[in-house]
Specification:
The structure is a single chain. The protein is mainly alpha-helical. Helix content is 62%, strand content 4%. It contains 33 helices and 9 strands. Helix 3 runs parallel beside helix 5, helix 8 packs parallel to helix 13 and helix 14 packs across helix 21. The chain is globular, with a radius of gyration of 34 Å. The N and C termini lie far apart (71 Å).
Amino acid sequence: MADKNLNLKARVPSSTSNDTIKKLIYSASILVKQLDSAVVKAKACRDLFTPEVIELRSQLSYLCVKSMGADPLQCRRRAEELLWKKCYYDVITSAKINGKKSPLSSMEKLFIGNHIEAGIVKFTELMQDVWRRLEDMDPSLKLQLNVLPLLEVKYQNYELSKETREDLMESAQKILVWLGDLSRYRNDLEISNSVITSERFYRQAILFNSNTGLPYNQLGTLTSHDPSRGFESIFYYTRSMKASKHFPGAEPNLKALLARLVTNEDKLISAFSQLFPKLVFVVKEDTTFEVSQLCQVTLGEIQKRLGSSENGSCNQLMDLASSVMMCTLTPTFATNNSQTAAIAFCCSLFAHVLNRFQEIFHMTSRDASYANGNQAHELKYLDPNAKEEMVDELSDEEEEESKRAKLRRRKVASGSSDQEFSEEELFLDSNSEQESEDDEVLSDSGFHSAEAKVEPLLEIPHEATRVLPIFKLLTDWFRVNVEIVQVSNQTIRKIWSTLADILNVFKRCQRENVTHYGTVPLEEDWKFYGVNSMSLVHAQIDFESPPAPSDVLILNSIRIERILQFGNWLASQDNEKGFQVVNGIYTCPAEAVGDKSEGSGAKADLVMRNMAHLWLKSEVQELERRLSPQQKRKKKTSFDFSGLSYVYLVPDVSALSNFTYLIKQVIKSQKLIIVVPDIVISEMDQLKRESAPVRECIRWLESCFRTGNRFIRAQRQNEHQVIPLLTYPKRKDKAHWTLFQILECCHYLDTNQRNVYKTSQNSPIVLFLTGDPVGETEQQTRAICNSIGVEYKFADSLMRKSKTKKR
């Protein structure tokens, strides 16, 4: 199939009349109908790639490109979407459906693979055209297009149309998403095992407009197939929901993902999948006690994960923290209680991270003290208030040994082989240290602050390297939530005291000079790229700058310097008796303590270990105080179906979608067998694009049919019986035709049950349940049901008669 040249604008004069455009649209509509018919009739994948069908797609592709050239301002968007949907999306979707029925042969995979490659070539050409227009319109564009130039297209000079920059940017983003989809389909159909290409296209689409939720939704779909990237999928779906132009399908996709992850073998993923819906969605019949219990279970698993050495565990925790942070930064879909719970969770997670750093540096300092013969190092960095006491207890011999060790290191650095020291050298070295202490000027900056006394630098342990990105991410979250910082200074001062001790240790760590990396974005910065709430933190970051080197020491140095900057910012938040920087040392007195006995010290350590739980407890109490005292306790509604004598329940579309909760209660009671007619499933499939309840009901039915449940099933092929002595409506009368198909199913179930079990004719066996009765149709339906011995009821009537109130 010869592909047409993209540059058709030269063939179409700029003064193309409306008649020409109308002819193009008319011709395209005829081709669309023919292609739809071909897709419906295709019984196998090879039927989609006959010469006739390929020629139809080629002609439609030609007309779409030609209409773009004829009138880009009005036809570009419609033509692009028509080209994508009819020429590629519908074909590949149909091939995937046929592939589920029977495995694809090697020849069929070859057809689909070539078709996908042709689509990548076509949309790459369109992308090049859009990008050239953008460059002509705005030569200052700095964003680099990393799409491979698959074809060398020569364009002729012509007058640019009056397309706006926003329209072209939107077209470029959609084309990149479609390129990512085509690459993803190769992986779905097992043509390729790599997802790197599709992920690259989606991320480039985000660079064009980070306020659009579609690329994030596609990234969530791409990563949801990998069990190890469950947290990453949750974050992408959440980011898609919270975007300014949120994608409507992100919320049901996230719900389906969380429902699937609840049964995951990983305890952390399972626990978080139960907690997260209560933080991001509006959940009815929710209690603060249940949320606090789920938070404690999740935080317990997080504490175990922070101490593990598994590869990728901290990346999962960073995605987890990012997802919860999105619930607090843009609370569009959350209630006030949900937002408060998310804030409490972030603060508790920060306390766990601080505890982990306490454990890491305590272990490292102890090992260093044994190596250097200095017994004071173990508590020196973790408890600045005890510095003077520990230094006073050093003996003269220990001080002299410390001086000898410092001189030995200096001689080794200078290349000297003499390792012996005279008394004069020791005396001169002690005088030089005293003079340097008197003359040294301490800086308040987090980049250049240093302690007066020269002490050996600490190496950053590997355990700290893994947790540093989460630490830095949470400090950014605190900077955009100033009101939380102020509350925290009054309620959990112990956390800031621990933070001060850890920041003092960071100042003693070995670091590279990273002043020229001050504007380089890190991985955690890209997580919130384009989020308006994070604009204060990202004001100093240039996302168009080259990425930072992959050297671990440089990355650690950048993160530590920015965390120290957070410490300086925290000290500037009007904390007269709180977090401060005194002579270059971070200090924050803990809450009032009595005697510094061993018992009180052990008690304080215990409090710090359980700080997350204490924070959650205080937040729950605060929520309870906010509740109105006049608010009555809600009565839990339960249903009693013991009085029903039916065997089968047959619902229509309105009963299934609008009264799903009632249907679930019927299944739970195990009193009736629910049979869903095929015509109902078909009608719901047509309505799923317009109705969110219908989509959720379809997903629930699929899960029930997949797992198997003896109390709900679909209609079998033979379960229909013609109703005698009735004139059937025509198929064009869709509503009445659907009704008669449901009644045929009811009639078969009733007749079959009575014939098999010889049931009395007086008691109804089948209940036809509807949720949306209408005037004349209601009377006609009731009359037909009475004639065939089927009970006819409304869903709300059944609910009122069956429900019971309990406190």
